[in-house]
Amino acid sequence: MSMILSASVIRVRDGLPLSASTDYEQSTGMQECRKYFKMLSRKLAQLPDRCTLKTGRYNINFISSLGVSYMMLCTENYPNVLAFSFLDELQKEFITTYNMMKTNTAVRPYCFIEFDNFIQRTKQRYNNPRSLSTKINLSDMQMEIKLRPPYQISMFELGSANGVTSAFSVDCKGAGKISSAHQRLEPATLSGIVGFVLSLLCGALNLIRGFHAIESLLQCYLLVYYTGWRNVKSFLTFGLICLCNMYLYELRNLWQLFFHVTVGAFVTLQIWLRQAQGKAPDYDV
After folding, report:
1. pTM
2. Residues in domain Longin (predicted)?
3. For residues 26 and 119, is the Cβ–Cβ distance under 8 A?
4. Strand 17-20 to strand 50-54: parallel, antiparallel, or no bridges (unpaired)?
């Protein structure tokens, strides 16, 4: 029998579950799919906004929009058009009910658990596809899926729930440079953005005055991207900024020297504060 089994609403940036339906079936296959839910929730920021993962007897489909992902588990023979129409309804209702400020500042798992009432009602409707209400706008969804089909996530790409290494991990094992290049940093803060702009400003001022701007550009790079020995490089870059300003002591007044050195110190602090993302918390989604 084709049916929707469960659904979840998850924040994209950190995998925090915001709401979820109740899983009535507790079979071995369902427990395995819960592990895939967890793994997908940690990779949402790296995946396209519309995806499907086939796990054998079950399919996991999800869509992401405005920093929130809507994920559902259904049997393998459940029609794609109904699955994504169901997710589209969840998305529209959630956006209408909760503003982005609430979802961005949520700190507790399942803090919008009351949304489960809507998930359950909608799931019941879509598990009875002969009802007229579920056929509304299905032609539009069919056309959208035909023009932009969901990205098919492979098990090799995701990595198995039993600990088999993902494709990314296999490629990076023993290749530290590649791993560093793909390491994600924590989300940028307002002070980090201000530091980035000020560093660019210092670089532009240096170029206008005919000086080099490599140290300011290097600070911008270290603030945005992860590299090996990143903190050490940031302190060495700040030392270079101090040395350059000592060399330019006779060409700049004290206020100019103070501005460039202060900006360099501020950006170095922001680089140190913005560390690589660790393992995503296990929210038991």
Report:
1. 0.56
2. 8-119
3. no
4. unpaired
